């Protein structure tokens, strides 16, 4: 059933109940004034009692409805507060992560700048120099070992 149709039915039911309540209260006012004057009949007493009981039933039903609505509103208020807390926590976490990212980026930028502008450390220089010396010794050894390959062999007579 569509929401629009339900809304129309609910509105029609509200109007019907409001009209019945207004009629009943009009009769109640009339019966109470007759009772005040002491001219109420036995039939009117029964009608008065029936209308008062109907008003009491509606009042009780309304109180139950209001209590249910209050419980619902309180539950939704707690859920909303919890949602706001979760949002605040998520925003704080995001801010912390953003700050951490900024710090990492600053360190990385400094590391890159240092790599471009700094001179090699003594250990780095020594390692590079040692590697070059080893390569030179290896080349000399290989040249020595393969030197005989470059000399022509004499022809045998």
Q: Please, could you describe this protein's structure?
A:
The protein has 157 residues and is an all-alpha fold. The chain is 89% helix and 0% strand. The chain has 3 helices and no strands. It has helices at 3-37, 42-117, 122-150. Helix 1 packs antiparallel against helix 2 (42-117). The protein is rod-shaped. The N and C termini lie far apart (119 Å).
Radius of gyration: 50 Å
Largest sheet: none
In sequence order, what are the helices and strands, one letter per element?
HHH
Tell me roughly what share of residues is in helical segments.
Answer: over 70%
- Proportion of strand residues: under 5%
Distance between the termini: 119 Å
Q: Structural class, from secondary structure content?
A: mainly alpha
* Contiguous runs where pLDDT drops below 50 for at least 5 residues: none
Mean pLDDT, all residues: 86
What quaternary form is this? single chain
